[in-house]
């Protein structure tokens, strides 16, 4: 996959994707169909689609995941845990400069040297062990071929990834979606926080429940390229979280999702000036 935009780069606005064209009224209506009720009592699925439509209109198509090869995407997905993408880029830059961004070469490195190279990504000793665990499976079971490792039915490949120490659901799904071309919805802390503030889910909703909720909403979209839609949806959620839906001081004024806030029922930590 060619690198286009990274999480810390400025994307450009673009066209709304087919099947998600603005209706002129961004407020979802009951005619959008039934779904599981959120904490507010109504189905959040139309609102989730409206949210995507609005952020896509604001940011444009984001072209994620940054990474030149599926292997680089896997490495980035592991290194990005608990750090900014800018730090991941520095770590990957060091791996490239050392000529080590290749499965067999990286696997042959002593774990101490690996940790040294990925130091900019933070938690480098832990991440070196996690990377090493991933590489052990990749090299010893699949001869370093990411396409072979990620081939097969999505649930089976997901289980394969989750069995590797240090690979959780978000990392596994990121690898599946962006490196393996599996049609899964990736959710993360950004997704949970923004959705909870809009009362589309509970703040402590389990990963799988939020993933199913989002997947169900997006399954209603008619598109010729569902993979691209799912890739872009996660990217849009991350950009909303990074640029607007901050943990302590959300920037609701100016946020594309501002019009979707529940009137008179603002979530904890959310303040908004009504114009
Ligand atoms: S910043 Fe405000 S309007 Fe934007 S997603 Fe967060 S809570 Fe919603």
Walk me through what this model shows:
The chain contains twelve helices and no strands. It has two domains: 103 residues, Helix-hairpin-Helix base-excision DNA repair enzymes (C-terminal) (Endonuclease Iii, domain 2); 110 residues, Endonuclease III, domain 1. The N terminus is likely disordered. Helix 1 crosses helix 12. With 275 residues, the chain is an all-alpha fold. The structure holds iron/sulfur cluster.
Write the layout of secondary structure elements.
Blueprint: H1 45-59, H2 70-79, H3 85-97, H4 103-108, H5 111-117, H6 124-142, H7 146-149, H8 154-162, H9 169-179, H10 189-197, H11 207-218, H12 226-243
Helix pairs in contact: 1-11, 1-12, 2-3, 2-9, 5-6, 8-9, 10-12
The structure holds iron/sulfur cluster.
The site of iron/sulfur cluster (SF4) has 14 residues, from α10.
